[in-house]
Amino acid sequence: MDFIPALNLNKQINMIQGQYHFTSDSINLANFVSAKTTDFLIDLGCGSGVLCLSLSQKLQRIVACDINEDETKVLMKNIKLNDLKNIEVFTCDANDLHKKIGANTADVIVCNPPYFSTGKINKNETRAMARHDNRLTLPNLADISTKLLKFGGIIYFCYPVNRTAEAITIFENRNFRVKELKFISNEKGIYLTLFKCKKGGGHGLKIKT
Fold first, then answer.
1. Which residue, 38, 41, 49, 111, is CA-closest to 82?
2. d(Cα 165, Cα 171) in Å, to the nearest integer?
3. Nearest to 105 by CA among 199, 181, 202
4. Dist. CA 97–CA 148, nearest whole Å
5. Which long-range contacts link 198-204 to residues 24+ away (Cβ below 8 Å)?
6. Residue 85 CB: number of other CB atoms within 10 A?
7. Which domains are present in the chain?
8. Which pLDDT tens digit goes with each residue over 50-93?
9. Phi, psi dihedral angles at 63 (to 5 degrees)
10. Nearest to 30 by CA among 19, 146, 128, 15
């Protein structure tokens, strides 16, 4: 496997990237997350760990899960590189994670899910899993989150702006309430929505800019 040199993720964290290099989407999502130090956070589809590493200075306990062993091996290198003690790594299907850590135990979930449902699928299996939603669909993510989160728990995720209504419907149909949305722009305009959804929450939505 080819690695790029360790890069500085922030002032405290250095990171080696695996085959699938993260984008600014993950950084925007990490900055959107609001969590207490005592919260138990799960990073679903963690890859080489950009989200959990970015949040590692804020939280006492993090579980990171990915089905791809090559990527979790890179994450474990990153944990060792930064001498972190608060991240536990599982190489498994996210559908089975509740069997390993217990159902209804997490306070927060964070996920940058794959969201391309059409188009040419990369022959590289790692990159295909990271980009295409044939393995982790949004309804599947919502179902997994229902199993893992406590009542009142929060999931943060990002999704293409043109699929915002679809994402809201999927989570609302599973007893989540969308509490915050933030829209991310690039030189072409708004392209991404960041979501904060609460399991069993009441109505009331904030739009962040």
1. 49
2. 10
3. 199
4. 8
5. 198/152, 198/153, 198/154, 199/145, 199/146, 199/149, 199/150, 199/151, 199/152, 199/153, 199/154, 199/155, 199/175, 200/151, 200/152, 200/175, 200/176, 201/152, 201/176, 201/177, 202/177, 203/177, 204/177, 204/179
6. 10
7. 7-208 (3.40.50.150)
8. 999 999 999 999 999 999 999 999 999 999 999 999 999 999 99
9. -110, 130
10. 15
- Token pair for residue 182? 């933030």
DSSP letters spanning 34-97: ---TT-EEEEET-TT-HHHHHHTTT-SEEEEEES-HHHHHHHHHHHHHTT--SEEEEES-GGGH
What does pTM read for this prediction? Answer: 0.88
Q: What is the pLDDT of residues 98-149, one digit of tens each?
A: 999 999 999 999 999 986 544 444 444 444 444 434 568 999 999 999 999 9
CA distance 53 to 104: 23
Cβ-count burial 52-61 (b if 16+ within 10 Å, e if not): bbbbbebbeb
Q: Which two tokens stand for residue 115?
A: 């969201």
